[in-house]
Amino acid sequence: xSVIDSVIRQPLVHGDKNYHDITTDICRPLENKPTKLxxxxxxxxxxxxxxxxxxxxYTTWVGIGVWNLNKTVMWGWDITNFVFWIGIGHAGTLxxxxxxxxxxxxxxxxxxxxxxxxIFAVICAAMFPFFHMGRIWVGIYWVFPIPNAFxxxxxxxxxxxxxxxFAISTYFSVSLIFWYLGLIPDIATVRDRAxxxxxxxWYNFFSMGWTGSVRTWxxxxxxxxILAGISTPLVLSVHSVVSMDFATSIVPGWHTTIFxxxxxxxxxxxxxxxxxxxLLIARKVLNYQEYITVGHLEAMSKILLLTGTLVGLAYITxxxxxxxxxxxxxxxxxxxxxxxxxxxxxWTMMSxxxxxPQVFWFKWARTTPWFxxxxxxLVNVGMWFERFVIIVTSLHRDYLTSSWAMYSPSWVEIGIFxxxxxxxxxxxxxxxxxxxxxxxxxxxxxxxxxx
Amino acid sequence: xxxFSKSIDKRNLVYGVYDDEHKLLSTVEAVREKGFEIFxxxxxxxxxxLDTAMGIKRSKLSIAxxxxxxxGFGLGLLLQFYMMVFDWPMNIGGKPTSYRMLPSMIPVVFExxxxxxxxxxxxxxxxxxxxxxxxxxxxLNIRQTDDRLLIAFDSDKLNKFNSEELNILLKENGAIEIxxxxxxxxxxx
Lengths: 451, 189
Description:
The complex is a heterodimer of chains A (451) and B (189).
Chain A: H1 19-31, H2 36-62, H3 77-88, H4 90-101, H5 111-132, H6 136-143, H7 160-193, H8 197-207, H9 214-247, H10 259-285, H11 294-325, H12 328-339, H13 343-355, H14 363-367, H15 369-396, H16 411-434, H17 440-445
Helix pairs in contact in A: 2-16, 3-5, 3-10, 3-15, 4-5, 4-9, 4-10, 5-7, 5-16, 7-8, 7-9, 9-10, 10-11, 10-15, 11-12, 11-13, 12-13, 13-15
Chain B: E1 8-18, H1 21-33, E2 38-42, H2 50-53, H3 61-87, H4 102-128, E3 149-154, H5 160-172, E4 177-186
Antiparallel strand pairs in B: 1-3, 1-4, 2-3
Helix pairs in contact in B: 3-4
C-alpha cells in the first residue's frame, strides 16, 4: 500500500469488515434463492424485452416506414436513443480506467456494476443504427469491410458513420475484455464456495483455472494498467467519433467544432446519472450500504456537478458562437431550438442538465440518497432530451423553408425505446443474480490501508 | 479455448496460512533472508510489492502489448489503403481517395490499434498463465480465494533440519497453521 490514507477521511468500506465478511456479503445474492423483489423486477423487464423483439421484428418485416421519419427529419428517435445509450455506456470505462489511472480508490466498489452497465448499454445502442439501415441483411456490407459481389465495393472510410462502427465495436470488445478480466478472480472465489455440481462446473469453466498465484497477480496488475491506459483515449474517442456524425455535416446546429468535448462531457454526465440510479437501488435492495457508502454517492454527485456544468457551458457557448459567427442559418437554428415549436424539449434539457445538478453545491443534496435518486432521474431525462434537441430541432427547419416539417414518433419507435430498457434491465438483473456486482478482490485489497 | 500439454507433476508442498498481507510480506522477507526458495504465494487479492519481495522479475507483457498495438496500427492502415486507394477507390462527395485521405484514416487506425492491443494482451496473458476455459485449478487450500494468504515451499527441497527451521520462521511471523499438500500439481509459471 503506497498510499497513506488520512485519518480524517472516512474509510472506503464501513462496518468493520474482515476479508471473509466481504466474500459472504457479496456472494449472498448469488448463492441464495432470488428474492421476490428480484423476480418482480426481472419479469417486468423481460416483458419489455419481448416488446423490443416484437417491435423490431415488425420494423424489419414491414420496413422502416413504420417509423414516423420523413424526408426532412430522417433521424429521429432512433438516433436519439442510439446516442442516449452510447452516452450511458461511458461511465463504466471512465470509472474503471480513468479513475484507476488517477488512483481513485473509491472506484473499486462501483466499477464492476458500471462496466456491466456499459456493456449492456452499448448493446442497446448498437441496435438502433443497425435497424435504421432497414434491410439489415444487406446492411452488413455497408458497415463492415466484408468481401462482396457488388464489384467488390468496399465501405466508405471517408465517412464518420463508418468510423463510428469501428469505434463502437472496438469499445464494446475492449470493455468486455476489461470486465471479464476483472471478473476472473471473483469467479474463482465463487467457484471455491460452490456447493452444487452445476455451479461448480460453470464457475470453474469461466474462472479459467485461476488460483491467485503471485506471479499471475503481478501480470494481472500490468495487464489492467495497460488496458486502463488504452481504454482512456478509447472512451474519449468513442463519443468524439459519435459527435463527428453530426459535426462533419453542414446542417446548422450540427456543424460545430466544440461537439467532441461537449459530447464527451455529456456522455460522462449521463453515464454517471445512470450509474447513480442503478446503484442507489442496488445498494438498498441488496443491502450494500457499507460498500457503496454515502462517500461514494457524494463523489459521484461531484462528478455530476462538474460535467453538468461543462455541458451547460457548451450549450451557452453554442448560442454565443451562433450569434458571433454572423451566420443567419446558425442563428435561426438556435433561436428555433429555444423558442420554436420544440421549445419544451430545449427547456427540459436546460433545466435538467444545467440547473438541476447545481443543487450539488450543497452537502445535504450530495449525501441524501432519495434526493440524489430524483436528481439522477432528472439527469437521465435531460440527457435524452439533449440528443432529441440536437437531432430533431436541427433537422426539422434547416435551409429550405418549403421542406420544413414536424416529427413525432410512431408507436413502434416508442415500443423500441421502451424495449431497450427491457433489454438493459433484463441483462442487469441476470448479472446481479449470477455474478458478484462488487469487485471482491479489489475491495479486499483496500480494506487495510496502512503503510 | 486453448489446449495445453500440461506437465503434471506430483508435488509435495508445505505451506503456511496467513490472514494478513503484512504478516505474509514480512514472512517472505524473513524466509528469503535465510535462503529458502519459495515455491509460490497465493493471495485472494493483489498484494502490492509481494512480487518484488519474492524476487519475481517484471513481466514482459508490456512489450507484448506494444508489439500487438503496432500490428494493429499497421493492419488498420493496410486495410484502408488496400480498399480505398488500391482496390476500388470510390469518389463519394468529392473526398480524396489517394494518400491525401490519410487524415480520415486516423480514427479507424486508432481503433484498430487499441483493439489489437487489448486482444493481443489478453490472449498472451492467458497463454502465459496457462489459463483457459475448463482448466482445473490446483487449489492448495479452499480458502485461498476467500480470506487466506498462503506461502508454499517445495518440501522435497527441504531436509529435516531446515524444515524445522522453516516451521519456526513461519510461526514467528504469524502463520495461523502450517499444512502439507501432496498430489498432482500442474507445473505452471
